[in-house]
Amino acid sequence: MRVLTFNMLNIEADEPRRRPVIAAGIQALQPDVIGFQEAAYGPLAPGGHQVRTLLDGLGYQVLHQFDGDPSPNQIEGTCIASRWPVTLVEQVRYPETDRLRGHALGAQLARIDAPEPIGPFLFVNNKPAWRLDHEYERETQAVQLVGAIEKHSRRDWFPTVIAGDFDAAPDRASIRFLTGRQSLQASSTEYWDAWESVHGNTDRPGFTWVIDNPLVVPVAERLCGDRPRRRIDYIFVANRSMQDRPARVTACEVVLDQPVDGVWASDHFGVVADIEPA
Prior knowledge:
With 278 residues, the protein is α+β, with helices and mostly antiparallel strands.
């Protein structure tokens, strides 16, 4: 199966021009399951729902973080699209803190009923705290996320897949925790980083948020104080000790990373991975 994660940059930065670039990229990639972040929802979104409008007629079932939420002030969130039947099993809302107010941070956990030889599996779409200095919040959120996954994953299913914009480089504690390199809050786990599984210690860094992209510049100038090139978007797969049905990542690439006629798809690049039974 092919999995894509992509932060859409909401409806900011001339979204009507970006929309066909995103749509063409998705049609070329043909992913089976997609995790979108910053997907617009409500009266400001195209057709009231950015992803449903984008994928109309392409055969995807779509679940947005705020489907059925009567709150009128939610304009963006996570969104899952699947070619196969999908059922939301939990919507994790990360708690607000003094430093996290007014942001729709959380994760969607969904059961995907893929055809054999894959079969059912848990798909997780994650969007934690985004500021560079919020790694403590991301650590707490990562532990909360793993706890939610443990409630819903089953050993006899195909391995759990986690995708999202994690807003943390590979050496940060939240990512080190997810990949089994350190424990947090008396908890530990280990997921395979799809990019690392395929590319290892090569000269391909897999950056997904780079200053070369003009949509990054306003945020970088305001928050970073440098010229960033970072890998902060990921796809993770549960390892063989966590579930009985082994899987392997056969390919992983950064995508939607070039302008089309001068138009960039988003301030983030996407990541796509091919995952199959081992």
